[in-house]
Structures are given as structure tokens and as C-alpha cells.
């Protein structure tokens, strides 16, 4: 029976480590928490695909359910671990109220269920030093766990709010237009200096979303809304189009190049972070080694033609000047990265993948 106590304490310690890795570590997720997240998300996606009309509502519930299921799993396993730890000690090391004898595992589970949330009913109390230490350990860990979960839930709201601000900002700026069109109109209307400022602002927003995914992997992309303007996929698609347009324009206008590269790096970093967290190692590896195809080269050529035609059509006198465009190497890599990333992201979320703007021209 001593082995049972050790097994229970070990289980409790593992739960504590999993919770600490998820709640306290700045860019980590416990193994148990990750398994719960994947199981709940897959269940929500499968249910949503079978209920087309209610699919979005099902996905909107996935985030809160993931959080609650993770918390419940931690509490239940911690309670089970403490029950296993005190079970062999009940008869000799604990005082049991008359009428409860003989004691068994259910009584140990009852004691653990009252100790973890720091309730304690007094009908089963520890007498020996060992029993008191185990009880103190269970109560201390339970109190810390409940406090950590409450703090984490509050922080999650703030983190998801930053992501929603980003998606709403992109949605309002796009207004149904493609990212290439949006960026080109910024160039024509406000000039290179303001377009450079827009690139830096978008890069800053992408870094904030990247930090949210790092800090709250449980819910960063699984907390959904029933309104499509909050979805991250359209926002990431629009920013990808803006980034490619900025890279192409940067080859014409050197003063725009640094801001375009900064936006490109921020987007590529966010794509790798999302891939590492949600989409699998294979995609993460492919994102670190882009291999543009002829399809990607034609896409960049299309963006180049759109940029030239749009600026000429708007009669811009302060956009980037004409140039030979070089080989568009960086822009081709970004088109390739965005294409494979968005394909996997839409497949993961089981959402429709609309074509990029350059695929409709």
C-alpha cells in the first residue's frame, strides 16, 4: 500500500507541474493541457462539420470549454492523487467520525475532495505527522491551483481581446477589399511615408498577436466568436496580401523597404508560432525552408501589375516610382509561406479558404 501512496503523490506533483507550465511559463503549455485542448477542439470541429448551420456556434464554444475542461482535469486528477496518497493511511493515521467505519477508497476520495478546495468538513482528520503533512500539501497545492486558474482566466480575456482588436482593425480597414488594393490605395492617397507608418503599425499588431499565441496557447486561436469579423484567418490573409504588396513596392522605393521587411519578419514569425502550437511540426519545418514555385512567381508578377495599374489609374504622383522590380525573391518566398500556412490553418479550423487577391486577377 505504500506504493499506492507514492503513486498518488507522484500524480499530484505531475498535475502541479502541468498547471505551472501552462499558467506560469511565458510560452509553454503543459502536456495534459495540450491534450485536452486538442481533444476538445477536434470534437468541436467534427461536430461543427456535421451541423453546418450551427458550426460557427459550436466553434465559438470551443474556447471556454477547453479552459473549463483543462481546469476540471487538473482538479480531478489532483483530487485522485491526494486520495491515493491518504488511502493507505486512513485507518491508522486519521481520526474518523463514528459511523463512517470501516473506511475505504471512497472515504479517501471524499477527504481529498474536501481538502483540495480547502473546505474540510472535520469528520476525517489527520493524527500522525505523515497524515498532517500530506493533508497540508493537498490543501496548499489546491489553494495555489485555484488561485492560478482564476488569474489565468482573467489574463486570457485580456489576451484574446488583443487578438480581437487586431482582427477587427484589419476587417474595418479592408472593408471587403483585398490587401493589395488596400495597400496600393494607402500609397496613392497618403504617400510612401504614411504607407511606411502603416507597415510598422501592422507589424506591431502582429507581434502582439504572436505574444498572445506564445502566452496563451490554450485559447489564442481556439477562442472564437459567432461573428466572422473576429476570425483570425481573414485578418491573416489580408495582412499577407498587404505584406506581399509592400515587399514589391519596396523594390521600387528603397525608403519603404525596411518597413516592408519588418512587416514580413513579423508575419513570418507569427506563422511559425501558430504552426508550432496548432498546426504540426511538418508545417513548421516547411515554413523555415520556403521553396517558391512557378505559381508563386506568377502571383508576385500579378501583384506587381496590380500595383502599377492601380497607381496609374489613381493618378498618384507620390507613390513609389517605376522600377524593374528585380527578381521579387523575398515577395515570392512570402507568397509561398502564406499559401501553405493559410491552407493548413483553414484545414485545421475547417473553415472555407477564399482565394488570395492575386488569384482572382
TL;DR?
Helix content is 75%, strand content 2%.
Task: Outline the structure in words.
This protein is mainly α. The chain has 2 domains: 2-150, Helix Hairpins, CATH 1.10.287; 175-359, no CATH class. The protein is built from 12 helices and 2 strands; from the N terminus they run ααααβαβααααααα. The chain has helices spanning 2-23, 31-50, 55-86, 90-93, 105-115, 129-174, 179-215, 232-252, 254-279, 281-288, 294-314, 329-349; strands at residues 94-96, 124-126. It has a two-stranded antiparallel ribbon. Helix 3 packs across helix 5, helix 3 runs antiparallel to helix 6 (129-174) and helix 6 runs antiparallel to helix 7 (179-215). The longest helix has 46 residues, at 129-174. The chain is elongated and about 90 Å long. The relative contact order is 0.10. Residues 322-326 have low confidence and may be disordered.
Biggest sheet: strand arrangement:
1-2
Order of helices and strands: HHHHEHEHHHHHHH
Strand content: under 5%
Number of domains: 2
- The helicity comes to over 70%
Q: What is the rounded Rg?
A: 27 Å
Overall pLDDT: 85
Number of strand segments:
2
Which stretches are low in confidence, meaning pLDDT under 50 for 5 or more residues running?
Answer: 322-326
Overall, the morphology is: elongated
The separation of the N and C termini measures 73 Å
Largest sheet: 2 strands, antiparallel
- Please state the structural category: mainly alpha
| Annotation field: number of helices | 12
Amino acid at each position: 500500500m505504500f506504493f499506492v501512496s507514492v503513486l498518488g503523490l507522484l500524480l499530484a506533483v505531475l498535475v502541479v507541474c502541468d498547471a505551472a507550465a501552462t499558467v506560469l511559463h511565458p510560452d509553454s503549455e503543459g502536456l495534459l493541457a495540450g491534450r485536452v485542448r486538442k481533444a476538445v477542439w477536434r470534437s468541436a470541429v467534427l461536430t461543427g462539420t456535421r451541423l453546418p448551420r450551427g458550426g460557427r456556434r459550436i466553434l465559438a464554444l470551443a474556447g471556454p470549454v477547453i479552459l473549463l475542461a483543462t481546469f476540471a482535469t487538473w482538479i480531478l486528477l489532483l483530487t485522485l492523487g491526494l486520495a491515493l496518497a491518504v488511502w493507505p493511511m486512513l485507518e491508522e493515521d486519521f481520526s474518523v467520525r463514528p459511523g463512517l467505519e470501516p473506511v475505504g477508497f471512497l472515504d479517501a476520495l471524499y477527504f481529498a475532495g474536501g481538502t483540495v478546495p480547502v473546505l474540510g468538513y472535520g469528520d476525517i482528520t489527520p493524527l500522525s505527522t505523515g497524515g498532517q503533512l500530506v493533508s497540508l500539501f493537498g490543501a496548499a497545492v489546491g489553494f495555489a491551483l485555484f488561485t492560478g486558474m482564476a488569474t489565468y482566466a482573467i489574463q486570457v480575456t485580456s489576451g484574446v481581446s488583443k487578438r480581437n482588436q487586431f482582427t477587427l482593425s484589419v476587417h474595418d480597414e479592408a472593408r471587403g477589399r483585398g490587401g493589395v488594393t488596400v495597400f496600393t490605395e494607402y500609397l496613392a492617397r497618403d504617400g510612401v511615408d504614411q504607407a511606411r507608418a502603416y507597415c510598422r503599425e501592422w507589424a506591431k499588431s502582429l507581434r502582439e498577436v504572436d505574444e498572445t499565441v506564445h502566452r496563451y496557447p490554450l485559447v489564442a486561436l481556439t477562442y472564437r466568436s459567432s461573428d466572422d469579423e473576429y476570425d483570425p484567418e481573414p485578418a491573416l490573409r489580408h495582412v499577407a496580401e498587404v505584406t506581399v504588396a509592400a515587399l514589391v513596392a519596396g523594390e521600387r522605393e528603397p525608403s519603404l523597404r525596411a518597413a516592408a521587411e519588418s512587416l514580413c519578419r513579423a508575419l513570418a514569425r507569427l506563422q511559425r508560432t501558430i504552426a508550432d502550437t496548432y498546426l504540426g511540426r511538418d508545417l513548421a519545418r516547411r515554413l523555415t525552408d520556403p521553396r517558391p514555385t512557378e505559381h508563386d512567381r506568377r502571383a508576385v508578377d500579378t501583384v506587381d501589375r496590380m500595383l502599377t495599374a492601380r497607381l496609374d489609374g489613381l493618378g498618384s504622383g507620390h507613390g513609389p516610382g517605376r522600377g524593374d522590380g528585380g527578381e521579387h525573391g523575398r515577395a515570392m518566398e512570402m507568397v509561398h509561406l502564406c499559401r501553405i500556412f493559410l491552407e493548413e490553418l483553414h484545414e485545421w479550423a475547417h473553415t472555407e479558404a477564399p482565394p488570395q487577391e492575386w488569384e482572382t486577377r
